[in-house]
Amino acid sequence: MDEPQTWRELLGKVTSNPYERQRIADAIGINAITLTRWVLHKSNPRQDNLRPLLETLPTYREQFIELISREYPDFLETSIVEDIPPEIPSAFYARVLHAHTTSPQLLRAATIRILILQQILGHLDPFEAGLAVIIAQCVPPSQGKIRSLRITQGRGTPPWERHIEYQTLFLGAESQAGQAILSGHRIVIQSKQQKLRAFPTHHVQMEESTVAYPILRADRVAGCLCLSSTQANYFTHIHLDLIRRYADLMVFAFEHDEFYSLCNIELGIMPAQSVQQQILAHFQRRVTEYVLHAMQSRTPLTRPKAEQIVWKELEGELLSLA
């Protein structure tokens, strides 16, 4: 059977069973005859009736969104406005500024990042439909150029884990985040098929749409703010405008020396996550070995400093694999 070309044809297919038609009508709060009139194009629904239709038929949600948007081009934007405020609350700007001015220097960056990541989840995914937000930070260079990014912090709603930073990963020019850094502009992917074509190395099965937004201060970059949704075509103009503002706000979460000139970005190629995991699994052991060796030789070495050394070693090993 040919695929429905309009949302009315799809609705007619779904409601061909009278019991199902009545169930949908009851869920939306309308008469079953009204559904039939929509199918036959004898009447037009109010857009506030179309939202419950999507919720009543989750299996067909993405198909309905695509077809409804052909007849009502502003449908998705209007729906999003109803779900999320189009502005970052002014009170949240005040919270970030307060954290920036009062937090101890060693805790300031992590505190602000967590504040912003949690705010993004609550703002852009209020019903926890499935959203992940991560920070991929430029790995400080041993000399000269920035060769990779590393996931340093992240938060998510199911099916993602709440704390994503425990699944650290190096990203290079083969990644969506890497290309956003290299171009200095956001990159938006709205479907799994598009992601597989453009960035197959780091595709995640539950991802449908993704955004990578560089964290910029003038012509210097600290990393990338990356979002992944379980829903295709999730990121509307409203979402993207909000993400841009959150990326601007994320500038407060980095020290001055953590920003690098775009001219000094020369990302290499990183292997897939499955390959990286075999090497990254030994991270803590290697850090401990550095600390113990320093103690035995009576050379001062803090654990954070040892971690930086090991991260650089791991970056080099992974780059050499590619």
TrEMBL record:
List, alphabetically, the Gene3D superfamilies matched.
3.30.450.40
InterPro entries named in the record: GAF, GAF-like_dom_sf
The cross-references to SUPFAM superfamilies, in alphabetical order and at most eight, read:
GAF domain-like (SSF55781)
Q: Where's the GAF domain? A: 169-255
This protein is called: GAF domain-containing protein
What organism is listed for this UniProt entry?
Ktedonosporobacter rubrisoli
